[in-house]
Write a structure and sequence with these properties.
Rna Polymerase Sigma Factor, Chain: A, Arc Repressor Mutant, subunit A, 68% helix, disordered N terminus, flat, mainly alpha, 198 residues
Length: 198
Amino acid sequence: MRLPGPSLLRRKSRGAPSSLNLSALRGPRLSYRVTTATVGVAVTTRADALQAFCEREYAGVVGYLYRLVGEEELARDLTQEAFVRLFGRWSAVRDPRAYVYLVATNLARRQWRRRRDEAAAVRRAHPRAETAAPPDAGIRDVVEKLPRKWRDVVVLHYYADLAVADVARQLGQPEGTVRRRLTEARALLATSLGGPDV
């Protein structure tokens, strides 16, 4: 099968906007083999591999982000952004599940920082106004205040529900280091929350 040339793409882009026909772009040059273990089904093209992965993981990422940000619509928006970023790097990513959860985690952190900055701006603008903290803000704030080396492993292991091996692979660290940091992080969290070991 021959891929469409630049003239075909230019012809489609003139005049009224039309959607891009992905089936015309599939061919031997875009063939992408993914192992069954990676996406759960046998696929032959990059688009099929991504589609199968998205169908399998979408709900889990939405649920994970909902627990982090507390709003369903925002969680869906952030999930979509995470999958768009995954698509841009699909051929270079070895473990798409760990990658999409890491991107989702970073997007949630960005949202937390934005909320914190907005709340600070409101307090500066209206010093007498009192704002109530979200109901689950306590644990989230404590985790966010952990140093990055402990925060990353906690968020990926407990919030994203990734196995220790997946966390280690995504962060480029030995599994023993990840286990040790999880233990240290639990001790720090217990101290910060004022209770027994978490």
